[in-house]
Amino acid sequence: MDLLARARTLAPLLAARAAAAEAAGEVPAETIAAFHQAGFWRVLRPTRFGGGGGPFALFSAISEELATGCAASAWVYTVLGEHAWVVAGFPERAQIEVWGTNPDALACSSLIPRVAARAVPGGWTLSGTFPFASGSAHADWAILGALCDAGEGPEPRYLLVPMASVTRADDWQVLGLRATGSRSLVLDEIFVPDHRSVRLADLMAGTPPGRAAHPGYALGSAPRYLLVPYSLPSVAVGLGRHALAVGTALLAHRRARAAIPLAASEYVQVELGRAAAEIETARTIRATGCAAAEAALAHPPIGADVLAAHRRDMAFAVDLVRIGIERLAALAGTEIVLDRNPLQALLRDALTIATHGVVTPREAMGDAGRALLAGINPVSIPTG
Predict the structure, then answer these.
(1) In DSSP terms, which residues pair with 26 in a beta bridge?
(2) What whole-number distance in Å separates Cα of residue 283 and Cα of residue 277?
(3) DSSP letter string over 256-306?
(4) Tens digit of pLDDT for each residue in 179-231?
(5) How many CA atoms lie within 13 A of 71 on its CB side?
């Protein structure tokens, strides 16, 4: 059975565990073990350390399929799975520390550089609170964004820290994606050797030091924002498919006050059709866009306009999913306020995903608009 088929097979099991996972605030260890057994964690890991070395399109598709069962479980898979690509960008020595004796090691993250690291001989000292570390209960390492100043001004870097040096705060009480366990990580004067750091600028440009350790690993030279739009946003697409199936089943059996089947209502039929179009269009955007992004790796250099377009398209896709799920929730009427209504949790998850920085419309669309305007030759603009 191929990996995508395994994801489809696992989705109903994830759905059965979803309510308990939400109540616990964590994806259960059994789910993490199932992902190990299925081989999902190896997809993006370099072949040198027992991985598949890509393709990213397969990783993105697995994320979508898992989300048709449980968005939180898919989110944790996607976060921890994608970080194999990030770890592969660190210097070779750091990669060996992570995977040398434990090829199945996983890394969580808090990537936005919010805290300043202090330069010390041989590396950095790091203290502070690092929020939104999804899946951290199941991680062996943490990738933490920090502002590192070696005397030439603050420079954003990612620092790699063993989870044994980290405390997890109990601060994940949220609207949606509750089972992701995205708690804050707290550090107190932790030393990070310099070889466990990588410049954010190098990762963004596809020029990190770790790529030298993996000839033939296409992801090693991939600019982050070429493929990141097809990582976590893929979870939204699978969630939309799940919501469409759930909403359709509910509407097929629900009756209006006059005991008339809702399925017979032309309004309901039209709105359901619109929701399906929105969600299926988002799915098409994900699949075709991810394939195009991966194909672009064979034709460098990749311009900022291309990166902005991929982020724009997936921000649009996630917005379509949100609109589609909100449309389904509206058809549920007042019953959407009931915790037992299965659409409610899916709506909360969709609203939570829509806040993620990668798909924030103002940033994603703004970057794309600026790229379009920058490409206009003023001489060619008609004036009459």
Answers:
(1) none
(2) 10
(3) -TTS-BGGG-HHHHHHHHHHHHHHHHHHHHHHHHHHHHHHHTTS----HHH
(4) 999 999 999 999 999 999 999 999 999 999 999 999 999 999 999 999 999 99
(5) 26
> Could you count the other beta carbons within 10 Å of the beta carbon of residue 258?
5
Calculate the CA 269 to chain-centre distance: 33
Looking up tokens 């600028």 gives 201
* Total residues found in the chain within this entry: 384
Domain 3-87: homologous superfamily in CATH: Acyl-CoA dehydrogenase/oxidase, N-terminal domain (1.10.540.10)
pTM for the full predicted model: 0.96
pLDDT tens-digit map of 298-321: 999 999 999 999 999 999 999 999
**Phi, psi (rounded to 5 degrees) for 258:** -85, 15
pLDDT computed for residue 256 by the predictor: 67
β-pairing, 183-193 vs 167-168, is antiparallel
So where are the chain's domains? 3-87, 224-377
Q: Which two tokens stand for residue 124?
A: 């950095």
Residue 261 has a pLDDT of 83
User: Of 46, 47, 81, 45, whose CA–CA distance to 61 is shortest?
Assistant: 81
CA dihedral 247, 249, 250, 251 (to 10 degrees): 80
- CB of 344 closer than 8 Å to CB of 365: no
Closest CA to 290 of 366, 228, 240, 248: 228
Pick the CATH number of 224-377 from 3.40.50.740, 2.40.240.20, 3.30.559.30, 1.20.140.10: 1.20.140.10
